[in-house]
Amino acid sequence: MAPTDTGAPTPARQSEFAPAKINLTLHVTGRRADGYHLLDSLVVFADLGDRVAVAPDTGLSLTVTGPMAGGVPTGPDNLVLRAARLAGVTGAAITLDKHLPAAAGIGGGSSDAAATLRVLRDRLGVAMPAPLALGADVPVCLAARTARMRGIGENVEPVSGLPPLPAVLVNPGVSVATPDVFRRLSRRDGSAMDDIPAFADARACADWLRGQRNDLEAPARALAPGIGTVLTALGDSGAALVRMSGSGATCFGLFTDTATARQAAGQIAAANPGWWVRSTILGAAHHDPADQPIEL
Ligand code: C5P
């Protein structure tokens, strides 16, 4: 059936990729009076993620689709809707195509919120609100490129000199609450990350990373022992470096080449049918060609 021609232009549906965020390091260097922790973290983005699509509409609505849609809240607290409201948007039909596990340490919700703000700004001309109000990881997710993140997350400095890193991401299907992990930290005044050199290749990057840390790994492992099982499986699969991302429970293994990473992912997935296992490239450019440069 032909659509009725009202003479009005058809509202365009615009979409943005919301890549998985991986903390290659996460040093906790202090604590503010309000309880938030000071961090020093090297953050990279994967070539897999969610997608947020926005079409002008009379009211504000959210539909969640995709293989990981189950359990994602669709109410007003969803970060995508909070992002739209923070930007002053009252009319938009938003679709979130969910491929990343939620509450998993890879920035699912934060990256979705950041992609919402990007699509509103870059495609629909909406002014950008201060992103930190949506969560500490949202500023770095807004940049969506390799960066050093400091402060509680508001200080984002682009980093170059990292090679593309073949990796395997594994989530054992347990979710860990970020505040609980921070609460269990035994030390809150650790050293900052070393200065980041330029790396010849993925092996050199993995070697340097071994001297850095994720301070949230030990408290997260105490809360969810399954994280230790994942780290062991990644180590046994030949990864050059294994570590947890963010506050967990997703862990990553870095590999020196893509074929070995794919093979390891296949083996880990076959041996652990309940786990979410993906091979990916970290730090590779993933932006849609139409993306504007991100102002930090
Ligand atoms: O900002 P976001 O909602 O992601 O943070 C979730 C929780 O993690 C905060 O309520 C806080 O307990 C903890 N957090 C922290 N220091 C940070 C980031 C998060 O203590 N820099």
TrEMBL record:
<dbReference type="InterPro" id="IPR013750">
    <property type="entry name" value="GHMP_kinase_C_dom"/>
</dbReference>
<feature type="domain" description="GHMP kinase N-terminal">
    <location>
        <begin position="78"/>
        <end position="129"/>
    </location>
</feature>
<comment type="similarity">
    <text>Belongs to the GHMP kinase family. IspE subfamily.</text>
</comment>
<feature type="active site">
    <location>
        <position position="21"/>
    </location>
</feature>
<keyword id="KW-0418">Kinase</keyword>
<dbReference type="InterPro" id="IPR006204">
    <property type="entry name" value="GHMP_kinase_N_dom"/>
</dbReference>
<keyword id="KW-0414">Isoprene biosynthesis</keyword>
<keyword id="KW-0547">Nucleotide-binding</keyword>
<feature type="binding site">
    <location>
        <begin position="101"/>
        <end position="111"/>
    </location>
    <ligand>
        <name>ATP</name>
    </ligand>
</feature>
<dbReference type="InterPro" id="IPR004424">
    <property type="entry name" value="IspE"/>
</dbReference>
<dbReference type="InterPro" id="IPR014721">
    <property type="entry name" value="Ribsml_uS5_D2-typ_fold_subgr"/>
</dbReference>
<dbReference type="GO" id="GO:0050515">
    <property type="term" value="F:4-(cytidine 5'-diphospho)-2-C-methyl-D-erythritol kinase activity"/>
</dbReference>
<dbReference type="GO" id="GO:0005524">
    <property type="term" value="F:ATP binding"/>
</dbReference>
<dbReference type="Pfam" id="PF08544">
    <property type="entry name" value="GHMP_kinases_C"/>
</dbReference>
<dbReference type="GO" id="GO:0016114">
    <property type="term" value="P:terpenoid biosynthetic process"/>
</dbReference>
<keyword id="KW-0808">Transferase</keyword>
<protein>
    <recommendedName>
        <fullName>4-diphosphocytidyl-2-C-methyl-D-erythritol kinase</fullName>
        <ecNumber>2.7.1.148</ecNumber>
    </recommendedName>
</protein>
<comment type="function">
    <text>Catalyzes the phosphorylation of the position 2 hydroxy group of 4-diphosphocytidyl-2C-methyl-D-erythritol.</text>
</comment>
<dbReference type="InterPro" id="IPR020568">
    <property type="entry name" value="Ribosomal_Su5_D2-typ_SF"/>
</dbReference>
<keyword id="KW-0067">ATP-binding</keyword>
<dbReference type="InterPro" id="IPR036554">
    <property type="entry name" value="GHMP_kinase_C_sf"/>
</dbReference>
<feature type="domain" description="GHMP kinase C-terminal">
    <location>
        <begin position="211"/>
        <end position="271"/>
    </location>
</feature>
<dbReference type="GO" id="GO:0019288">
    <property type="term" value="P:isopentenyl diphosphate biosynthetic process, methylerythritol 4-phosphate pathway"/>
</dbReference>
<feature type="active site">
    <location>
        <position position="137"/>
    </location>
</feature>
<dbReference type="Pfam" id="PF00288">
    <property type="entry name" value="GHMP_kinases_N"/>
</dbReference>
<comment type="pathway">
    <text>Isoprenoid biosynthesis; isopentenyl diphosphate biosynthesis via DXP pathway; isopentenyl diphosphate from 1-deoxy-D-xylulose 5-phosphate: step 3/6.</text>
</comment>
